[in-house]
Design a protein that fits this description.
Layout: H1 5-21, H2 24-29, E1 31-39, E2 46-48, H3 50-63, E3 68-77, E4 81-91, E5 105-117, E6 120-128, H4 130-136
Parallel strand pairs: 1-6
Antiparallel strand pairs: 1-2, 3-4, 4-5, 5-6
Protein name: Ester cyclase
Pfam families: SnoaL
Organism: Sphaerimonospora cavernae
């Protein structure tokens, strides 16, 4: 394990706190200038640079105005990478990949691979079950 494990874990927790508070300035302050979000089930997938990352978060918050991301556990931390699991929840209050708001509650498990550079977050690769999310908003029958 790297010597700076506590600092990396603290940075991830700070990022999630800013995400939950919908504090875009704080969130981006913890990220590098070449930051990215790769959201695997998202048709857009890659959000590269602060402007696109900001656009992704604004869209997420518009879709789930009461978004909460709860850390379940950090699985691994190495020198420049960490892996964690979360529970994402919120009320479907805006367009979700083209599905109009339903007012339904959504709760899905997510996994994130964090790319860390010099103690700051360079990027997040986010995995979640889109089928479960679409089923919860009534758009998919399984």
């Amino acid at each position: 394990m790297p010597a700076n494990i506590d600092a990396i874990v603290a940075e991830i927790h700070s990022h999630l706190a800013a995400e939950n508070a919908q504090d875009l300035d704080e969130l981006l302050d913890g990220m590098t200038e070449d930051c990215f979000n790769l959201v695997v089930p998202d048709p857009h997938r890659l959000y590269a640079g602060p402007e696109e990352v900001a656009r992704r978060y604004r869209g997420l918050w518009a879709t789930f105005p009461d978004l909460k991301v709860q850390m379940r556990r950090i699985i691994s931390v190495q020198e420049n990478i960490a892996v964690s699991e979360h529970t994402l929840s919120g009320t479907h209050g805006g367009s979700l990949f083209g599905v109009p708001a339903t007012g339904r509650h959504v709760e899905v498990e997510t996994a994130v691979v964090w790319d860390i550079v010099d103690g700051r977050i360079r990027g997040e690769t986010v995995y979640f079950d889109l089928a479960t999310m679409l089923r919860q908003v009534g758009h998919l029958q399984l």
